[in-house]
Amino acid sequence: MDGEPVGAAQPTAATPGTTIHFTDLFYNLPTRRRSLMNTQSEEYARIVDLVSRFAAEYYTIAFTCRNARHGSADMSSPGGEADEQMKVLHFVLGDRVAKDLITLPDTDLEVGGGAYAASVRGFLTHGNSATYYRGSQRHTVYSGGSTGGWCTIFMNGRLVECTPLRKAIGDTYARYLPKGQKPAA
User: Quick one: a GO biological-process term for this protein (predicted)?
Assistant: First the structure.
C-alpha cells in the first residue's frame, strides 16, 4: 500500500473479457499530479489516447475506455482476427482518418553491414489535414503547432516515446507534407 508493492509480481489467470479498473492513480502524489495534469478531464484524455494507441497495436484484443461518471465509451475497438487491423483502426481513429491510411509493407532492414537487423511495419497518412471525434473529444491528427503530429512507435511489443526517433520520422515525412502540417504515423 501507499505506493509500495504488496508482493512479488506473478502471472495470474484471467477469463476472457477481463475488466481492469483504474481509480485515483495519483492518490499519494498530489504535487506530482498537479504538475502533470491541469484537470481530471486532461488526465482522462491522456488515458484515452494511451488506450487508443495500444488498441491500434494489439488489434486482436478488444479495448474499451469509459469514464465511470458517464455511461458511453469514449474509445472502443472490437478486436479482430490477425488480418483485420484496418477494421480495428476504423474504430480507433475513425473512418475519416482510417480511409486515408497508407500501409507500409513488412520490411526487413539491415544496418551496419548486417550487424543490426530490424523488421518495420506500419501506417502513414497522406498530407491532408484530418480531424476526428472520439466521444465528445475532438482530435487533430496533424497539428500546426510545435508539438508535432500523431506518431506511435512500438518496439518489441512496447510503446516507445523516443524524441530523436520521432523527430527523424517527422523530418523525413515533413518533406512530403503541405507546409505547416505534421505527420501521423
Answer: mismatch repair
Considering the entire predicted model, what is its pTM?
0.69
Q: What's the rounded mean pLDDT across residues 121-144?
A: 53
| Residue 9 within any structural domain of the chain | no
Provide long-range contacts, Cβ within 8 A and 24+ apart, for 52-57: 52/92, 52/93, 52/134, 53/152, 53/159, 54/159, 55/88, 55/91, 55/92, 56/85, 56/88, 56/89, 56/92, 56/93, 56/152, 57/152, 57/154, 57/157, 57/159
Can you say how many angstroms the Cα of residue 72 is from the centroid of all Cα atoms in its chain?
A: 20
Distance CA 61, CA 63 (A): 6
C-alpha 123/C-alpha 86 separation (Å) is 10
29-75 pLDDT tens trace: 666 556 665 677 777 888 888 888 899 899 998 888 888 777 778 88
Which of 3, 56, 54 is CA-nearest to residue 29? 3
Q: What domain range is 62 assigned to?
A: 26-93
* 150 in any annotated domain: yes
Domain-located, residue 129: yes
Distance CA 20, CA 80 (A): 20
